[in-house]
Amino acid sequence: MQRQSMLWGTMVMMLTGGPGCTARAGDHEAASGPAVVRAAEPGEGHLANIRQLTFGGQNAEAYFSPDGRQLIFQRTDPEGRCDQQYIMNTDGSGMRQVSNGLGRTTCGYFYEGGTRIVYSSTFHASEQCPPPPDMSKGYVWPLPDFEIYSSRTDGSELRRLTENPAYDAEATLSPDGSRLVFTSTRDGDLEIYSMNVDGSDVRRLTHAVGYDGGPFYSPDGSLIVYRASRPSTPAETRDYQSLLAERLVRPSRLDVWVMNADGTNPRQVTALGGANFAPFFHPDGKRIIFVSNHHNPRGRNFDLFMINLDGTGLTQITTYDDFDGFPMFSPDGRQLVFASNRHGSVPGETNVFIADWVEPPAGN
Q1: pTM over 0.70
Q2: CA 230 to chain centre
Q3: Distances (CA, A) of 206 to 200, 209, 210, 354
Q4: In tens digits, what is the pLDDT along the chain, a chain of 364 residues?
């Protein structure tokens, strides 16, 4: 799942920055206050009653509990300590750290009816933050030695689900609660896999050269939506594989894809140019919301867009002139949570927002 505050630069901060951490889950509750109502930007007709839920630091990748009452998200606090997992109520109250405060974490998700969470962490390799990537190679993402863990929502009963020197992250849950889908480099490329929730029966789902990641199941569990990059020339393939050997990836061009839940029939949904990522199904299973900078692929303005499964009906959802990203619908489809740089106390600050979802009148 993905990660970060996205201006691309802020993504780097959330993936790679910050000193080591020493706190443990439950040692403290994060500062939180009542949600603040914010006005929608012009043209944001799908969003009503927007509320800002976090204030300060870097906060992103917020995902609903099965009952729609809580959110799990990753946070780098204002002191710059490594990304950790937090849970809060959907009104912004009750924010608390649930990961152990060691290493870096990413990609939290609820499962077992909301009684447990799954996320990835590097603490088994080192209790310190992973070092930042070598930016002399251009804008690249690091691929640390993440392993997938689960715990109860208070951080107890920590269990390790993967064990290898690869990148294992971006895990999300099937609607029936039986399987996790995730991204891994265990076979030498960034591919998507599924496994039982106890870590058994691992199955590889994608097989093309390039970064396949950020997978989510459709509401009925029959499809998986994900982001993918595909090198288009031998030189791009060599660059991709050379960086991968150094545990790096260059995420400049990404598109939204879907495939059957068993990995068959992969097909491209977007062909817009730029970076198109963080896709998530609308609860009707017919539309996908995602993040894109296709209006200016060299720019730092990312907005939310909606598109039909067949690639038609592209609709812009947010219009803020900086970063909006990581959208997820509530299980009943009535709310949308997303991360944004809007209303930050300092430039590049990313916070979590929630809004009521508004469908246009029939025929519009």
Answers
A1: yes
A2: 20
A3: 18, 9, 10, 33
A4: 443 323 333 343 333 333 233 333 444 455 566 899 999 999 999 999 999 999 999 999 999 999 999 999 999 988 878 999 999 999 999 999 999 999 999 999 999 999 999 999 999 999 999 888 878 888 888 999 999 999 999 999 999 999 999 999 999 999 999 999 999 999 999 999 999 999 999 999 999 999 999 999 999 999 999 999 999 999 999 999 999 999 999 887 899 999 999 999 999 999 999 999 999 999 999 999 999 999 998 888 999 999 999 999 999 999 999 999 999 999 999 999 999 999 999 999 999 999 999 998 765 5
The side-by-side arrangement of strands in the sheet containing 116-121 is 105-111, 116-121, 147-152, 159-160
What is the maximal distance between C-alpha atoms in the chain? 56
Dihedral sign (CA 341, 347, 351, 353): negative
State the SS3 of 136-164. HHCCCEECCCCEEEEEECCCCCCEECCCC
Single-letter amino acid, residue 121: S
Q: How far is CA 161 from the centre of its chain?
A: 19
Check if the beta carbon of residue 285 is closer than 8 Å to that of residue 219: yes
d(CA 119, CA 13): 19
Which residue from 186, 180, 196, 263 is spatially nearest to 228, judged by alpha carbons? 263
Domains in the chain: boundaries: 8-357
d(CA 260, CA 211): 18
Provide the CATH number for the domain formed by 8-357 in this structure: 2.120.10.30
